[in-house]
Design brief:
This protein is α/β, with parallel strands linked by helices and 215 residues long. The chain has helices at residues 92-97, 131-140, 166-172, and strands at residues 3-5, 24-29, 39-43, 51-53, 74-80, 89-90, 107-110, 128-129, 144-147, 177-180, 191-195, 206-208, 212-214. The chain is built from three helices and 13 strands; from the N terminus they run ββββββαββαβαββββ. α2 (131-140) runs parallel beside α3. It is globular and about 60 Å long. This is Kynurenine formamidase. InterPro entries: KFase/CYL, KFase_sf. GO terms for molecular function: arylformamidase activity. Pfam families: Cyclase.
């Protein structure tokens, strides 16, 4: 069996949503200062690094991340690698051309290659998903869509007055969870098993996760 993590390592000051604070970490106890043990204190937004969005992220009465059973985050997944670049809107046809067709209940993991840019300003100028993907995913009954992008939405600099997180609302409103900021190492497999349980933060609108795939 081969196992790979699709999650970024946490580093103080790491890249994230520009309007949100970044990761901060310090030691409350430190062997180097003469303490018997070492203990860190970490502060970060719930949407930092590789994480899974819950419906409460976009809906006032939405389900929170800790309300999901563990089995929701473990199961079959397919990987699609659609051809794309900055300004590309990824369609359902692009997804189906880039990998096997997902089945009801599957997780769909979209590998654009953008994860390799993480930490660079160019990571913020990314492709996005077409709104029709949310409708298709809901009708198909996917459990989760993950991607190596900051967000499935348009980049912040390309949004106009009509922008209203349409993809988040379409996916999360249909209980299709969203995993953001994945990173794909070299991987040829297209059908895998995902193990991606998030931190069960009480009332959380998202949960950080070490998103693992195996085959």
């Amino acid at each position: 069996m081969t196992m790979l993590s699709l999650s970024h390592h946490w580093v103080p000051g790491m890249q994230g949503v520009p309007v949100l604070p970044t990761v901060e970490a310090d030691h409350v106890l430190n062997i180097d200062r003469g303490d018997a043990i070492r203990v860190q204190h970490v502060s970060a937004p719930s949407h930092m690094g590789t994480h899974i969005d819950a419906p409460s992220h976009t809906f006032a009465d939405g389900r929170t991340i800790d309300e999901y059973p563990l089995e929701r985050f473990i199961g079959p997944a397919v990987i699609s690698s659609p051809a794309c670049s900055y300004g590309t809107t990824i369609t359902v046809d692009d997804i189906l051309a880039g990998g096997p067709e997902p089945q009801r209940g599957d997780m769909l993991l979209i590998h654009t290659g953008w994860g390799a840019k993480f930490g660079d300003p160019s990571y913020l100028s990314h492709p996005s998903l077409d709104e029709s993907v949310a409708t298709w995913a809901a009708e198909l009954g996917l459990g989760l869509i993950g991607m190596d992008l900051l967000t499935p939405e348009l980049p912040a600099q390309d949004r106009d007055a009509t922008f209203a997180f349409q993809l988040h609302r379409g996916l999360l409103g249909a209980d299709v969870l969203i995993a953001e900021n994945l990173v794909f190492p070299r991987i040829e497999e297209r059908r895998v098993r995902a193990v991606a349980a998030p931190v069960a933060l009480a009332g959380g609108d998202a949960g950080w996760t070490n998103f693992v795939v195996e085959w």
